[in-house]
Structure formats: C-alpha cells, structure tokens
Design goal:
Blueprint (H helix, E strand, L loop, with lengths): L20 H15 L6 E4 L6 H15 L3 E6 L2 E6 L5
Antiparallel strand pairs: 1-3, 2-3
C-alpha cells in the first residue's frame, strides 16, 4: 500500500505534543529515574499491554536526556528499569 502524503499549512495541523501528556510523563520519569538509589529497580505499571512499548520508549528517551543509560524489560503490564552498571 503506497503512502498518502499531502502538504498542509502549519495552522491547519495540531502542534506537536499539543496536550502535553507525553512531556509530563517524560518529566515525571526523569525525576524518578534521577532519584533511583543504587541497587533499586524502577517499576512502572502501565495498566494495559498496549502502553508497554510507549513506556519503554519514554524510559529510553529519559535515560538519554539524563546521560545515564538504563536497561528495561517488562512482565505482564509492568515495565521495570534499572541503571546499567557498566556501559558497553
């Protein structure tokens, strides 16, 4: 199926992160990740299986912005993250 691409004026389309929820979630994750003590693991309950991928993406983005690499995984609807001890 070919892509359908159109050009629109800037005032006709919604602005990026218009509702601001992604930015608020990213900020909240960055705060919690920066407060994470050594030997601890961050647990995020996503509530449903469709939110797991987005939550992992936010964790990756937050860890890059913090300059502190994290590894993440999930089990069920919970996503876990911990700082990487020694970067590759």
């Amino acid at each position: 199926m070919p892509l359908k691409i159109t050009h629109r004026r800037e005032d006709e389309v919604p602005s990026p992160a218009a509702d601001g929820t992604a930015n608020e979630e990213l900020h909240q994750l960055k705060v919690e990740m920066s407060k994470l003590a050594a030997g601890m693991v961050l647990e995020v309950d996503t509530g449903n299986s469709k939110s797991i991928r987005g939550t992992k993406g936010l964790i990756t983005r937050a860890s890059r912005q913090l300059g502190r690499p994290f590894v993440h995984w999930h089990q069920g609807t919970k996503v876990f993250a911990k700082p990487v001890d020694t970067p590759k």
